[in-house]
Amino acid sequence: QVQLVESGGGLVQAGGSLRLSCVASGSIRSIKTMGWYRQAPGKQRELVAAITSDDSTNYSGSVKGRFTISRVNAKNTVYLQMNSLQPEDTAVYYCNAEVAVSWVLGYSEVWGQGTLVTVSS
């Protein structure tokens, strides 16, 4: 069983910063892409940023230049540094990873429980 546990959410004023962390634990053979998604009230879940095992990154247009995704493969951890936060960034942020527990079973998608980020104006 693989678990993703996020931390670092909270309340911040507009223009402030937060750093989210997500640690994968369990019987992990390998992790491919890790990413962050968010879901605001009344909206669909959307990709915020993703990073591959060789550190290739992808960002949504709305966060490019403000958010930075990074990972430490040896710790099965992915981070999201969020700067210049705006009220429209308010959402529950979910960690996502493609994880293999065995080479026979291949990779499966795993989600964290989510962490709430609230940006006040």
- What order do the helices and strands follow? EEEEEEEEEEE
- What's the average pLDDT? 96
Number of helices: 0
Helix content: under 10%
Helix vs. strand class: mainly beta
Quaternary status of these chains?
A: single chain
What is the tally of beta strands? Answer: 11
Coarse morphology? elongated
Strand content: over 45%
For the termini, the CA-CA separation is 40 Å
* Poorly predicted segments: none
Radius of gyration: 14 Å
Characterize this entry briefly.
This protein has strands at 2-7, 10-13, 18-26, 30-39, 46-51, 57-59, 67-72, 77-82, 91-100, 107-111, 115-120. It is mostly beta strands and 121 residues long.
Question: What this model shows, in words?
Answer:
The chain has no helices and 11 strands. With 121 residues, it is an all-beta fold. Strands 2, 4, 5, 6, 9, 10 and 11 form a 7-stranded mixed sheet that branches.
